[in-house]
Design brief:
Blueprint: H1 2-19, E1 26-30, E2 46-47, E3 51-55, E4 62-65, H2 67-72, E5 80-82, E6 86-90, E7 95-100, E8 112-118, H3 147-172
Parallel strand pairs: 1-3, 2-8
Antiparallel strand pairs: 3-6, 4-5, 4-7, 7-8
Helix pairs in contact: 1-3
Amino acid sequence: MTNLSTLVGYLAIIFFTVVAPASSATQSVEWSLGKDYSSLATGKPFAVGDTIVFNYGAGHTVDEVSESDYKSCTLGNAISSDSSGTTSIALKTAGSHYFICGIPGHCDGGMKLSVKVGAAASSGSGGGGTAAKNTPVEGGKAGPSASAAAVLKPFEALVVTCVVALLCGLARS
């Protein structure tokens, strides 16, 4: 019985050091005039499942827009818009996402953020099964890399194989 409790202890250590950390990240952005969002780029990618939280005072909005509307600061064509003061954007798709303030003059004044979102590790359906690696981010801080999640799937298979082998060995003894 002590072999079984030792095995359970090792499995718990493996789970909490390898499997549990593979989670999405939340990145806060202080959304206001006079900030240089391009200087916040860190070279780390956002990944599908991450969240950006925009915090701002009255007189601002967070509008998700197309690339052309982002580049030209065109207002009125927002994909989505919020003016609540705290806007959480769940990044659900890979690719570039563009955000501007929808108040006239604010986007031209620098209130615009472009982020590149890498694909999350595949969970067996859809997606390419690859994670982004060192995708540049324009105008905002980036969340942690999803590359650890890409390595996790093969490692999980190895761990499961080892556990099954150990359990089969314990059952025979």
